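Here is one chain, start to finish.
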Amino acid sequence: MNAFRIKDVRVYTTAPTAQGGTYFKPGDAGHWLVDSLIANPMSGHPQYRAKRSSWGIGVLGTLVVEIETDGGVVGVAAGSGGVPAAWLIRHHFARFLIGQDARNLNLIWDQLYRATLPYGRKGLPIMAISAVDLALWDLLGRVRGEPVYNLIGGRAREEITFYCTGPNAAAIKALGFWGAKVPLPEGPHDGEAGLQRNVAFLTAQRDAVGRGFPLMVDCYMALNVPYAIRLAEACKPLDIYWWEEVLSPDDIEGYRQIRAAHPTLKWTTGEHEYTRYGYRQLIEERTLDIVQPDVMWVGGMTELLRIAAQAAAYDLTVVPHGSGPYSYHFIASQTGPAFCEYVAASADGRSIQPVFGALFTGEQVPKDGKLRLSDAPGFGMELADHGNLVAVT
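Its structure:
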């Protein structure tokens, strides 16, 4: 018997009654990510301005992949893309998995990617690949009795430090995080008055945490080049630590112009980019200070490691967007800066809760802004209850 031979692939979506955190059910009403005034790509359309749920930020929802070997070992991972991505895994991807040796990660990834070229390359199909890839890494860790960070280079540090993304910088500081990232409330469509309100909002956040505490701003692809340049200039007295995702990652020329206008400020992006091909020019242009792939979207751990290798050749820092323990294992294995993002998973953004809510047991969370990863095999998480899941057949 081959301990690594895949015999079954199971895919689920989360039940409508499931309760969870940031990635479990991001469309839940009452969560700060849904109900807060946050500038976003749809802000120019008044009917979709008030809440991100109105234009479907959580419509796809979470999926779960289980991959089982002949020996009965099961690797599991959560992913994004909901029913459409789950259907792809069940009805398209499974043919590349059943009977395959789970150690053949590069082969599997290449086949999945090439098989989706006619309809993929970015977005939902790559999210589906990500979920499969993460489940495979979890499976390999379980078969070998090793945490994933040992499989991708070993532990480079004993402890990870965190900044937190949430609605209130003072609450984040009080929780012990080294820095806070807050969402920008308004964008170009709100005119000059909106720009001044943004400056006032960020001034209040800075005043609440004091000087010297890193304060970052998440702009969620809502701005344009002139607006970003003006806003950054107006906020220079606030000592913003970095400006994140001011434009779509596709706008390479726009980032070049912003860098030329403000060469001493820090600019970051990447959570909405996909695969190493999408990152190639972003990295080569050197217009960014930090690249921020989301391991649950970008193509999984296999592709994140390739992007990190690209960035290392240009001495660029890689700090993944969100993704909870999947990102923690990556950061633990890297020799660059030992910090990671924690997206506030609680409804009000003022307390520490598991990123995946009630979906898993064993999910580690930061305490006082720090975390020492356990040596549990795989990613160290177990599905809490299949009753929260709906099988995709």
